[in-house]
Amino acid sequence: MSLLLSTSAGFAADIPNMVGTWKPTGDLAAAFAGAYPVSEKKLASPIFDAKGNQWTLRIDVQDGRAFAGVSIGPDGKEFTLAGVLRADLKRFVYSNDRGIASGEVMGDTIEVCWTDVIEKVAGASCGTYRK
User: How many domains is the chain built from?
Assistant: First the structure.
């Protein structure tokens, strides 16, 4: 039984701390079609430019592998998010009312890839963030 307890304690100690403000590093790739997600204005053709679409993630609370906070758009508008680290404690998923994301923890950096789930908008992006 003590072996089981020490293994569990070791597992818990290895959970990455997601709490904090994650800011974009500038390494971002994005594709949008239909309408641009920030303004939701119709696009004449798809765009592949991520300038002006840098989001910040602020994780306010964490309980084990689960976490919650907000994603903050380029205009400062906040969207509540809820997420969870996968069992490998490196990969994670989260959702908010604009889309879903998956990512990977790499020390003080995370890579996040997300898709927009907004009427008339098709969008996908991947970027890196640092605390």
Answer: 1
DSSP string, 61-86: EEETTEEEEEEE-TTS-EEEEEEEE-
Q: Given this model, what pLDDT does residue 20 score? A: 97
Q: What is the rounded average pLDDT of the residues 39-50?
A: 74
What CATH number should be reported for the domain holding residue 98? 2.40.128
- Residue from 27, 52, 26, 23 nearest 37 by CA: 52
Q: What is the pLDDT of residues 67-94, one digit of tens each?
A: 999 999 888 999 999 999 999 999 999 9
CA distance 53 to 37: 9
Q: How far is CA 93 from CA 18, 58, 61, 72, in A?
A: 12, 15, 15, 17
Quote the domain boundaries for residue 116.
Answer: 2-130
Which two structure tokens, joined as six digits, stand for 112?
Answer: 């996040």
